[in-house]
Automatic annotation (TrEMBL):
PROSITE patterns for this protein: GST_CTER, GST_NTER
Residue ranges of domain GST C-terminal in the record: 87-214
Organism name: Bradyrhizobium zhengyangense
UniProt domain GST N-terminal: residue ranges: 2-84
Annotated protein name in UniProt: Glutathione S-transferase
Origin organism lineage: Bacteria, Pseudomonadati, Pseudomonadota, Alphaproteobacteria, Hyphomicrobiales
InterPro entries named in the record: Glutathione-S-Trfase_C-like (IPR010987), Glutathione-S-Trfase_C_sf (IPR036282), Glutathione_S-Trfase (IPR040079), Glutathione_S-Trfase_N (IPR004045), GST_C (IPR004046), Thioredoxin-like_sf (IPR036249)
One Pfam family hit: GST_N_3
Gene3D superfamilies from the UniProt entry: 1.20.1050.10, Glutaredoxin
Domain of life from the UniProt record: Bacteria
Length: 215
């Protein structure tokens, strides 16, 4: 069986996507905490030795460093035969929602949450812009989930793992009360949390936590 090491920091939803996927597939990994808040990923040495793209997470598979969460989720789904798609139509839908999440939902939520909770001084005009965009994206997802148990229908896939990652963090970080504002998303997050082996990010990803200025 492969040996996994996951370079992460606990607040990283993208790190959580891989940690959760491995856990749900019955695998373990060695967590490697990374001082993202301290700027280590912006150093030349880290980019030379860990990830030239300057991003977290990095998944080591038998010593080989691999990056970019979406293709890694797809690779793991194929490898373990879980949380993937079966038909060509399902494959298209999985990719459609996975790419939408990366470009829209995760892309905006990760930045908004980081600025809102983990930046001591932020620009309220920028936060307002991101919040307006997120309200739109969350409305799209909530509408879809009113008629679908999961992203592509009746079973969870890596698209669900990708979309739920940043949304499952505490509300004092992202500022949304999904039970009140987006009940279909709230119910879907509840369904995801019933998957055998599911754990939240702060249980799966150890290490020093960043200061939450939004509390």
């Amino acid at each position: 069986m492969p040996t996994y090491r996951l370079h992460h920091f606990p607040e990283s939803g993208n790190s959580y996507k891989l940690a959760l996927m491995l856990t749900l597939c019955g695998e373990t990994f060695e967590p490697v905490w990374t001082d993202f808040g301290g700027g280590v990923t912006r150093t030349a040495d880290w980019r030379k030795t860990v990830n030239e793209m300057g991003e977290i997470p990095v998944l080591e598979v038998d010593g080989v460093k691999m990056t970019q969460t979406a293709p890694l989720l797809l690779k793991l789904a194929e490898q373990y035969g879980r949380f993937g798609a079966e038909t060509e139509a399902e494959k298209f839908e999985l990719l459609r929602w996975l790419f939408w999440d990366n470009h829209k939902l995760t892309g905006y939520m990760a930045t908004y949450r980081f600025m809102r909770a983990f930046t001591e001084k932020n620009d309220p005009h920028v936060l307002k812009h991101f919040r307006r965009r997120l309200d739109d994206f969350l409305g799209i997802l909530d509408g879809h989930l009113q008629h679908n148990a999961f992203a592509i229908g009746t079973k969870p896939t890596v698209a669900d793992i990708s979309m739920m990652a940043y949304l499952h963090y505490p509300s004092d970080e992202h500022g949304f009360d999904f039970a009140a504002s987006h009940p279909a998303i709230h119910a879907w997050l509840g369904r995801m949390a019933t998957l055998p082996g599911w754990k939240p990010a702060y249980e799966l990803l150890p290490g020093k936590r960043m200061t939450n200025y939004a509390k």
